[in-house]
Write a structure and sequence with these properties.
The protein is α+β, with helices and mostly antiparallel strands. It contains eight helices and nine strands.
Length: 182
Amino acid sequence: MSLIAGNLRVVQQLLDQSGMAWAVCAGAAAHLYGNRRPIQDVDLLVAQGQLNTIVKLLQSAQKAVQFDGQRIIWRGIKVFDDLTLRQNGMVHPYTLDAAMTERRRRLPLLGNQVQTLAPEDVVIHKLLMGRGAEQGKHDLEDVAGIVRRQQLDGAYIAERVKLANAGRISVQLREFGVELGD
């Protein structure tokens, strides 16, 4: 088992035992849904305001973590409670809400059964980020892989695009062959 796998198991057990809502997001989620590039780290999204609680959980398990007030970093695992993007004077809210929590899926990742954001939520975040090889990232490549391998709920995506104030990505979604529902 890899170091990240073991660390993921520790964090997963602490979060599950606490009853806290959480989900794998970003590149590791994209890996599960389509784009099978190597996993360098695992990003987790938790409900807003939970980071201090998670720091205490990890510290009570004798884990030394880095915490800058916006994210927790511990040995290949990064935990966020707000991935809201601010771009070109626009704010694109992206936090773990009830709809995202309800659509999570438990999937196998590095030998662990982890809560994972729905592919639709991963696609929206990746399109908002929109980074490519020039930034050393794979957002658009990840979206292409997810769209190829997953049946996406167009109505849910349309709803989430509105909530994220992200109408600008509708054109990109259609270019990737995603039909938005009403």
